[in-house]
Design goal:
DNA-binding; 341 residues; alpha/beta; 6-stranded parallel sheet; 14 helices; homodimer; 434 Repressor (Amino-terminal Domain)
DNA sequence: TCATTTAGTGTAATCGTTTTAGAAATTGCT
DNA sequence: AGCAATTTCTAAAACGATTACACTAAATGA
């Protein structure tokens, strides 16, 4: 079997507890003993057993990442690798490991996360989404598990630490940009209504129209999956309208890609025939044809800040609730043009 | 504190060991007792403590993912989310959780993985890369830890289970495609020479040239990072040559993107002035301007198969060594054209 | 009928740490 | 020198499961 703390203790002629304290670098152990013990550890090639340590100390130094759907699906959208990059950076800085939820349906994810936490596999979790009436979020709150959410919680916002953008303003600005270019028929292509990002952005869009005195049209509002296919579907539907929009606010770059695809198939040109403002400013926005004007929401930073907050919360359960708003900025490229009759 | 196996035992009027056996669904427990125990578990809201279970059973049901560099960097390349998707699917099927290494420099990653394994945090690991003389791989082998590598091991290939493409042939075919189009000055843009993918692909490229009777030129061989910047660097250098190439084999889509960028800045056009065959066939290849002819290496499947093999190996330490070659296929788009003098 | 299986549970050791409570050794002070 | 205070270390009890072994009662067989 493996080298344990007892072997080290024997070799160094001290008690196991002393070795444990040397590992923790307790000030209650003399330098002399520490040297002796460390020497023994080196000689034996000792590595602490995290599992045993976790069991005794009731902490794992692991953070759980919870995706909105199966990683298998979510990871198709570059948003997720990018948040994870931010999470990874912060986790690494504080010596936390990362564990990913793997579940397919909502119920399965819920069970998985509950097991993760009740099974004490992780010290806390980061929700990479926020949806209306989320069973999981309620559970986490009720059981006082440390967690933070990326996005705006549906309920009890003031009781839940979260990191978000000002999606209302961001979408409003996006729509205003199009309005300033003279567009009057502007559609909104977003994700499922149960996600708060979608709701917030829709409201922002709506507010911009209202302020500009433009009508809000139900048939200009699309809700689809955050994937290319979603964008395609939405665009097809919009084009089937009697008076299709001349501009779009699209809530995600990958969706925007689908929009472009459909437009291309239909022989319509961007920005000549239709203008687009998208969200996320991932590499896709830069690369698409034409490059998309996109709202940069600083995804990396969302992940980074969320993780830092979570770790603080884990370290100190009384840490006050925080609400962190990451700034956004609209990056203008070549998918928007003046509206010409 | 939490509900433990003892609480359940008390409630059901049985011994803790019986409860444990019910959890494991042991055939040695009568149906009647099982029902009684399950009832008690439900009533108390019992969740098994994974950590305690892991300690006792010496297994965690967690797989470690090892990236070549900091996740923070690696995840910029769509290759990684895509392998992870495959890994995630297989892991989920077999009820394994995933843990990611977070380390920056090579040495730090090494330490991290050693700790992961020695600390018994994971039952095995998947290396998402293969490099020459890899300290970590040697360590894993020496200590008989279950692991599989995605890529071709540098040494003792026949002793290490790995999942790879036939990179030699893939690159050869890529180059041949260009040769068939009449190109004679074909450059190779790959990653660092320490990675075996790079080496294999370079050899394939070389073989194609040789068979076609074309000269192999050192100054046409570029080794850069698997990022856009790498492609840019390479292309700049190639363009500074007295007789720059008319076609390129680029070992990665993201790099190819960098190549395109530089080409665009220099006012050169693809495929009119330069033809390109790239690798990975990620979304980027489809989206770039022009869309890239790219070798699809079925990244998802690499991850999926690797994970299945690893889990088999964990379940049965005597599982024979496997070598799985995932087929590739060249997807033709619009980055290649006939060579015109 | 009594020894022998077999089925179903229980007892207790074990996994490798952390940590509380307290013993032993050292130091300081008068 | 004697005693309190301080420093340094140890013994032993958690932590929450798994599992080898023991045991009892019922079933089987000669």
């Amino acid at each position: 079997m493996n080298v344990t703390i007892k072997d080290v203790a024997k070799r160094a002629n001290v008690a196991p507890s002393t070795v444990s304290r040397v590992i923790a670098d307790s000030p209650r152990i003399s330098e002399k003993t520490k040297r002796k013990v460390r020497q023994a550890m080196k000689e034996l090639g000792y590595h602490p057993n995290f599992i045993a340590r976790s069991l005794a100390s009731q902490a794992t130094q692991v953070i759980g990442i919870v995706m909105p759907s199966a990683a298998e699906q979510a990871l198709q959208n570059p948003f997720f690798p990018e948040v994870i990059r931010g999470i990874s950076k912060a986790a690494h800085e504080k010596k936390y490991a990362l564990q990913m939820s793997t579940g397919e349906k909502e119920e399965e994810i819920y069970e998985g996360v509950v097991d993760m936490l009740q099974g004490r596999r992780v010290d806390g979790v980061i929700l990479l989404y926020s949806r209306i009436n989320d069973k999981l979020m309620k559970y986490l709150q009720k059981n006082k598990f440390p967690f933070v959410v990326i996005g705006k919680p549906h309920q009890k916002e003031e009781q839940i630490t979260h990191v978000d953008n000002d999606n209302y303003r961001a979408a409003k600005e996006a729509a205003q940009h199009l309005i300033e270019l003279g567009h009057e028929r502007i559609a909104f292509v977003g994700g499922n209504k149960k996600y708060l990002v979608t709701v917030d952005r829709l409201h922002g869009y709506e507010a911009a129209l209202k302020e500009a005195g433009l009508p809000y049209r139900e048939d200009y509002i699309m809700h689809e999956e955050f994937l290319q296919e979603g964008g395609q579907e939405a665009m097809k539907e919009l084009l089937s309208l009697a008076d299709p929009p001349t501009a779009l606010v699209v809530a995600d770059d990958l969706m925007a890609l689908g929009v472009l695809k459909t437009l291309d198939e239909m022989g319509l040109r961007v920005p000549d025939d239709i203008s687009i403002v998208s969200f996320n400013n991932t590499l896709l926005a830069e690369m698409s044809r034409p490059p998309l004007t996109s709202v940069d929401i600083h995804i990396f930073q969302l992940g980074y800040e969320a993780t830092k907050s979570l770790i603080e919360k884990i370290a100190n359960p009384n840490e006050p609730v925080k609400r962190i708003i990451i700034p956004h900025r609209i990056v203008k490229r070549f998918s928007c043009d003046y509206y010409r009759k």
